[in-house]
Task: structure prediction
Amino acid sequence: MSCHLAIALDLAARGVPVLPLRAGKLPAGNCPACRDNACGGRPNMKTPGPCDCPRPCHAWAAATTDPTVLTSRPWRAAWADAAAVAWHPGGAGLTVVDLDHADAVSWARQTLPTTRTVPTARGEHWIYQGAMPSANGVRPGVDIKSTMSYARWLGPGAGTMAPLPDTVRALTARKPAAPVRPVTVTAPAGGGECRHRTPAYLERGIAMAEQRITEARSAVHHTVYRTFLAVLATHGRCGCLTNDHVTRLFTAAQSKGESLRHCTDAWANATTALGM
Result:
């Protein structure tokens, strides 16, 4: 048994999901059947075990505490080539604040409550009880590793683990979207017949469009354009669509990371496609 597999089994027995890492701190690559998530995976890769592949595919999502899986033939081959052991902090209900250099460590000592710390090659890992969304570069030299992420196992560390503080959670809070410039929507020459009959029809349509955009998990650009196209096709020719409605749609798109330029281009393209 390799030393990495022995460490992994010990961690798994304590409820810590683990996976092998190749040189360069990289997870095992997806097999041909799972490459580019061709196997379908599990929606949004939010939970371990994205498919039934017996190999350690899908990076952090492969992390497991099952000793039968960890010692299976495909995993043994991965452990034989492993350069290190990784663990999934979020899967263990924990969060790692990865401090990449001395300045980041100094900031943490001045700002965050003391907790269990693990020395790294260039800085420290601060480990807290509680999971949260992961994010890189939340400030200079600081990454958050928790859900949908993995960290290299560098030992148990020292100190008493503290509850995850709001100060750390706030590091990944979204900044408010930039204000949206009003966009004027004009009806075609001569206007059109209004089919709304009641303002509730238009309101329901805008609300559904906002929801469709904010719930998009992939292909956001395409979703925004198709939604703009649908709104314009239904509500754009009679003059009932106002700048306030357009602002709501742009705000929903920007909350998903779309820039104002992308919103404006998508709106213009949808208008052109409809001959408006």
Notes: Residues 113 and 162 are 7 Å apart (CA to CA). The chain has nine helices and ten strands. Strands lie at 18-22, 26-27, 84-87, 94-99, 116-119, 124-129, 135-139, 142-145, 151-152, 162-163. The longest helix spans residues 199-214.
